[in-house]
Every structure is written in structure tokens, then in C-alpha cells.
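Task card 7
Instruction: Convert sequence to C-alpha cells.
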Amino acid sequence: MDIFLQQIVNGLVQGSIYALVALGYTMVYGIMGLINFAHGEVVMIGTLVTITVAGSLINAGMPVVFAGLAGLGASVLVCMALGWGLERIAYRPLRNAPRLTPLITAIGMSIVLQNLAMMIWGRNYLTFPPLLPKINFELAGAHFTAIQVFIVVVSGATMAGLLALIYRTKLGMAMRATAQNPAVASLMGVNINRVIAAAFVIGSALGALAGVMVGTYYEIAHYQMGFMLGLKAFTAAVLGGIGNLAGAMLGGVLLGIIEALGAGYIGDLTGGFLGSHYQDIFAFIVLIVVLMFKPSGLFGEKTGDRA
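Output:
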């Protein structure tokens, strides 16, 4: 039971990160029908920017708290600008192109950003500066840290804030109208270009926050870290129902728990043949099962192609 509770805690933390990244995928897909495969690289760049800014300020003698906030702020701004640039330069000219064209472009932008990060930050793993105190807690035999509590609480608050933005503001209303029918929304006075750009910017800001959480949790970063994280977040979005915000949140948490439980018990289930380092296979198993039996996801709905 102790192992089970411990893996649930670990899964909630990991799932909270997946959920934040998955929201970036599902916001763009809900409005444009585009899977932005470069989103994982946006998260990666956010992590590396935080390392550069916060690490430099800490070395200069700035208190860790202020250095961390400055690093987070810089990361969010850079990722927001990057998300806007991706939409404006790479995706907007292809908005009326066949569906395969922007998909290939998204994969291409992912490769470009990955190699750009390698040129700037190098090939080696980078150490993330310690931004939070390492305080340990215990509850019912499960151990967790202040960093894990921070990740779950901030992720929950951020997701609640996003739902409030989408369902309680004019921008959110414009996003929902654009997702429903862009042509009619445009006739009603909605600036489609501005709404789509806002979706990219907001999703990229969430990605930057997730990147800081990943760096704080694992304390390392690498220019290739965005690929696997983005793939798992995409799986979470598909699991919940891509295009559905609540589904992306639930899908991220469920995927994190499934992965954590799998890592904890895979050795026993396979008689020691497979170890916990094979935990990544569970994301792909989930993706395959969902695509086979419920392609629309848990909360997705079958919809026809737009006219």
C-alpha cells in the first residue's frame, strides 16, 4: 500500500505537468484543427531560458526567490514571443492549405527549434538551479516534497484560471466562437487572426510554466527534452479528447498516474524482465489503445469536417 500511495503521488505530480503541456496542444487544435508538434520544443526552450537567467542572477548574488521569479518571467515572455512567431510565420500562411502541409511544417519547426537550442545551449545536460527548498513531508506512508506540492497546486490554479479565461471573458468567448465556426465568427466581428495568435501565445505561456516545473522537479535540462515530453502531453490530450480543455487536464493526470503505477509494478508484472526505466512504454500503450477503441478520447465528440 505504501508503494501504491507513493506512486499515486508521483503520478499526480507528473500528470500535472503533462496536463499543462497538453492544454497548449488542445487549445490550438480546438481552434485551428492543427496539431502543433513544435509545442514540446517551446517547453524545452522555456526551461533552458530559465536556467540561463535564474542561474546568472543567482551567481551574481541575487536571492534565489527573486532570481527564480525573474527566470520564470523571462521564460514566459520568450515562449509567448516564440508562440506568436510560430503562428505568424509558419502556420498562418498555410491556414487554407491541405491538412498535411501544416502538419509537416509543425514537425519541421520542431526540428528547427531543437537544433537552434543545441547551437545556443550545447549538447550537454544542464543543471537547473535549486529554486525551492527541499522540504520533505509524509502522509499515510507516502513521501513528497515541497517541490511536488508546489507543482500540483500551481498547476491546478493555472488550469482553473485558464477555464475562467475561456468561459468568463470576451477573449474566451471569441475563442469558442472561432472554434465553432471561424467564418461566422468573422462575420460577427471577431478578429480571427488575433484570436488564433492569442491561443498560441497563451498555450506557449503555459508551456513555459510547465518547463520551469520540469526543470525544478528533475533539476536537469537538455535540448532534446521537449520531444518525449511533447509526445506524452499529446497522448494525454488524445486520451482526454483533443480540443477539450477539461479532457486535456484529466488526460494528463490519468496518464501521469498510469505511468507512475506502471513504473512501480512493471518489475513484478514481468518477473523482473523489465524495470522502471521502461515507464515510457505506457504512454504509447495508452495512445494505441485510445486510437483503437475510442479515437475521440474520453470527453471528445465526433464532429464532421468544417464546411
